[in-house]
Amino acid sequence: MTVTRFAPSPNGPLHWGHAYSAITAHDLAGADGGRFLLRIEDIDGPRSRPELADDFRRDLAWLGLEWDDVPPQSTRGANYQMAASRLQQMGLLYLCDCTRADIAAAATRAGPEGPVYPGTCRQCDHPPEGPAALRLDIAKALEITGPLTWHDALAGKQQADPLMLGDPVLVRKDMPASYHLAATLDDAADGVTLVTRGRDLFAATHIHRLLQALLSLPVPQWHHHPLLLDDEGRKLAKRRGSKSLADHRKSGEDGREWAQKIRIGEWPCGIRQESD
Ligand code: GLU
């Protein structure tokens, strides 16, 4: 039985890109009578707007989707802390108080997500005194796990290359976990068998695969779908003027009809799918 999930962060309203992602995950689970889960990724306290979660549910219902709710990230802190202490006991985490500007100044290469953290604090004799994040020492972690592979339903078998993104933050200064740690643990806890999300998170999966190996978590398959772009070829975003699903819903449009169109690749006006 396939278990998929849609895991939006409640820091802005959903748009057509989210609708496409949710419909894809929903239909992949439906194909074999599986389950489609909704997980609210509200770990980022200050940026989270709790009232949006109910709006997300209204949007999904408007599209004609059915789902099972699983607990939001804000209730899962203990699980994140347990995993972080385990990694710490394995000697794989180190403190880092570098700012974005420090990293931009020190980086010697760019990765898929911008300047790659060059490991500045890995060898530090004096640990930072103020608030600091915890980073994963990827090279050391790979010595434990050895080479890893993972499988994407569209792109096929992948050799995990977690070094590509540099040592990632697993515990943020102000939060019990970063996206990487939280999403990996949640997918395991929720029994997700097919992690369905946009291609913008493809590189992140290299890290997630490594975390699964380190924490002895089950290894799902992945389905990274192409993104929807606006007419200037940019990812959809509310701040760039993409209309939200709630706007369409509230103006009385038929969400089920829109969902059917999206299923056959008939995109709303001014939107296209990224090409390979
Ligand atoms: N919460 C993430 C987002 O809203 C999605 C994470 C994921 O699907 O793994 O972009």
Protein model, in words:
By secondary structure, the chain is α/β, with parallel strands linked by helices. The chain folds into two domains: 3-75 and 226-273, Rossmann fold, CATH 3.40.50; 77-148 and 160-178, Rossmann fold. 33% of the residues lie in helices and 18% in strands. It has nine helices and 14 strands. It has helices at residues 16-30, 51-62, 77-89, 100-106, 138-145, 179-189, 204-214, 245-250, 255-263, and strands at 3-6, 35-38, 68-69, 93-96, 110-111, 114-115, 133-136, 149-152, 156-159, 169-171, 194-198, 221-225, 228-230, 271-273. The protein has a three-stranded parallel beta sheet with strand order 1-2-3. Helix 6 (179-189) crosses helix 7 (204-214). The mean pLDDT is 94. The structure holds glutamic acid (GLU). Residues 7-9, 41, 183, 197, 201 line the site of glutamic acid.
Poorly predicted sequence stretches spanning 5 or more consecutive residues: none
Task: Say which CATH homologous superfamily of the largest domain is assigned.
Answer: HUPs
Q: What is the N-to-C order of secondary-structure elements (H for helix, E for strand)?
A: EHEHEHEHEEEHEEEHEHEEHHE
Strand-residue proportion: 15-25%
Mean residue pLDDT: 94
**Which oligomerization state do the chains in this entry correspond to?**
single chain
Q: Could you please say which CATH topology of the largest domain applies here?
A: Rossmann fold
CATH class membership of the largest domain? Alpha Beta
**Biggest β-sheet: strands ordered side by side in the sheet:** 1-2-3
| Cofactors, ions, other ligands | glutamic acid
Beta strand count = 14
Taking the alpha carbons of the first and last residues, their distance comes to: 29 Å
Put simply, the count of helices is: 9
Question: How many strands, which pairing sense, and closed or not: the largest β-sheet?
Answer: 3 strands, parallel
The total tally of domains equals 2
